[in-house]
Amino acid sequence: MKEYLPLYRDALFLTMRIGWEGILLAFVIGLVCVLILHFRIFVLKQITSFYIELFRNTPLLVQLFFIYFGLPKLGLKISPALCGMLGLGLLGGAYMAETFRSGLENIPQIQFESAESLGMSRMQTFRYVILPQAVSSSVPGLVANVIFLLKETSVFSTVSLMDLMFTAKDLIGMYGRTVESLTLLVVFYLIMLLPVSILGSFVERRMRHAEFGN
Amino acid sequence: MKNSAKAALLGLTFALTGVLGMTAFADDKVYRTLDEIKEDGTINIGVFSDKSPFGYVDENGDYAGYDVYFGNQLAKDLGVDLNYVSTEAANRVEYLTTGKVDVILANFTVTPERAEQVDFALPYMNVALGVVSPEDAPITSLDQIGSDDQVIVISGTTAETYLVKNNPEIKLQKYDTYAEAKTAFENGSGVAWANDNTEVIAFAAENPGYVVGIPSLGSNDTIAPAVTKGNDTLLSAINDEIVSLGKDNFFHKDYEETLLDTYGKDYEDTLVVEGGQIAEASTEAETEAATEAE
Predict the structure, then answer these.
(1) Do B94 and A77 touch (CB under 8 A)?
(2) Strand partners for B64
(3) Residue B289 — very low, low, confident or very high, per pLDDT cuts 50/70/90?
(4) What is the average pLDDT across B28-49?
(5) Which of A147, A158, B49, B170 is deepest in the core (most CB within 10 A)?
(6) Phi, psi for residue A165 in degrees, rounded to 5
(7) Helix/strand number for chain A, H first, E second
(8) What is the average pLDDT value for chain B, to the nearest integer?
(9) How far is CA A117 from CA A39, A128, B62, B125, in A?
């Protein structure tokens, strides 16, 4: 069992690296989408809505298949790592956009009206009044999304990435030590996710400044 | 303690007791004996659904192939219905050790490591490893593989074990299923694909532009049906079946039905193992042919 530890450690680093790159991309895409939707920019609004619906309603596995196995048939070859990051980013972006949007909609209309009555422009309102409240309100959802995306990395075996799940499966297939491999698998997933969960609760508590009475 | 915490703790205790209690009723053996299978009326056989021409699903949605042809005959002679279960290379051993299938007929190569976990019946096929590569960049020796190149293998196959053990410096690109590995290879994700030589020869024959640069790698092995360790009744039934079918030259007929189009007549005696007897002459011929080809 000791020989397995370095393999699991490598898989953990790979999963975390690609996972966090994907999550970062998801944040960026999510923010851009929600801005487009909030400011109702003409054509981009429809494209964004279509993107969100498409990527929220298809599984990551399907998306990975398309990007990794389908695109090369059209001439576009993508490396497994990039494919994993893209898949997570695109799927996560759709989820993050929805989370940000719900955070935005949580803000009572009176905030917009008060800012307008004070003479603030739309951009000023958004930057100083709306965005801080929206972020604070969406943090629980965002933390949940981050944990969800990190767990979604378990399908990376499709694109030949040696993530934690694939490492466990491969070891079982080659050496047959099922119980040890699966136990180590659970342990390593906990090592990856428990700190995120704890950090997330900490961030949630600190960012709670937009609630009524705070 | 808060009421809700108390309730949760109580519920957890009940659940744990329930689970532990249920294990007291659990069967200590995982497999089904021959009589249990006959009583149930259906035998569960694990096969490949994407490894043509040995185990695949044809255009009518039925399982077909060299392995499946034998599976059909086995079920007929045992007098039970068939339930084919699609397996991946890496979970064949697991399916037997957890009793999910009764027999594995998924082109399963006999190795000493596997024999420790499952029971193998008599062999029905010869196999070695082979490496296929694109025609314009053929790999005829493992030394040609550079440090940046990746070789495609399927997780849980003898090709993977061989390369991991003997050529650890070669970077491997691992896939779960034959379908994914084939597609990735066609997309040019790796410089070569290492698998059973029977499979790569079939691939090169069906797909123009590829050549089997290394037609025989590693030891000459055999492929045999496998059952859960300890399932002696089923094991002897399968062995008796193979021996009696050998008298009718069944596996030669199997080859002619399922493999002739892919390999032609010449390969028949090299590949087929009749009646569980590995013919000494045919293995010699195979090694001679392999040396001549180099």
Answers:
(1) no
(2) B56
(3) very low
(4) 90
(5) A158
(6) -65, -45
(7) 9, 0
(8) 86
(9) 19, 15, 72, 84
Mean pLDDT estimate for chain A: 89
Residue of B nearest to A171 (CA): B156
CB contact under 8 A, B90 and A172: yes
> Does the beta-carbon distance from B156 to A173 stay under 8 Å?
yes
List of chain A residues whose C-beta atoms are within 8 Å of the C-beta of residue B184: 68-69, 160
Asked if A172 reaches chain B (Cβ–Cβ under 8 Å), the answer is: yes
Contact between A169 and B155 using a beta-carbon 8 Å cutoff: yes
CA within 13 Å, CB half, B195: 28
- Whether the per-residue pLDDT at B294 is higher than 50: the answer is no
Chain A residues touching B91 at Cβ < 8 A: 169, 172-173
> pLDDT class for B274, splitting at 50, 70, 90?
confident
Residues above pLDDT 90, as percent of chain A: 52
Q: Is the pLDDT of residue B5 over 80?
A: no
How close A168 comes to chain B (CA, Å)?
11
For residues B219 and B277, the answer to whether their CB atoms sit within 8 Å is no
pLDDT at A206 over 90: no
Out of 1.10.10.10, 3.30.565.10, 1.10.150.20, 3.40.190.10, the CATH code matching B127-220 is 3.40.190.10
Looking at the domain B34-124+224-281, which fold is it? D-Maltodextrin-Binding Protein; domain 2 (3.40.190)
The minimum CA-CA distance between A94 and chain B, rounded to whole Å, is: 27
- Answer whether the bond into residue B53 is a cis peptide, omega within 30°: yes
Chain A residue numbers with beta carbons less than 8 Å from the beta carbon of B153 are none
Q: Where are the domains of chain B?
A: 34-124+224-281, 127-220
Domain boundaries, given as residue ranges, for chain A: 4-210
Per-window interface: A 26-85 vs B, CB < 8 A = 68-69, 72-73, 77, 80
Q: Confidence class of residue B282 from pLDDT cuts 50, 70 and 90?
A: very low
* Whether this model's pTM surpasses 0.90: no
Whole-Å CA distances, B59 to A132, B56, B64, B75, B262: 58, 10, 10, 23, 17
Find chain B residues with C-beta within 8 A of A72's C-beta: 187-189
ipTM for the predicted complex? 0.80
Topology match between the domains B34-124+224-281 and B127-220: yes
Q: What is the pLDDT of residues A21-57, one digit of tens each?
A: 999 999 999 999 998 988 888 899 999 999 999 999 9
CATH of domain A4-210: 1.10.3720.10
Q: Name the residue among B90, B152, B187 with its Cβ closest to that of A170.
A: B90
CB atoms within 10 A of CB B221: 17
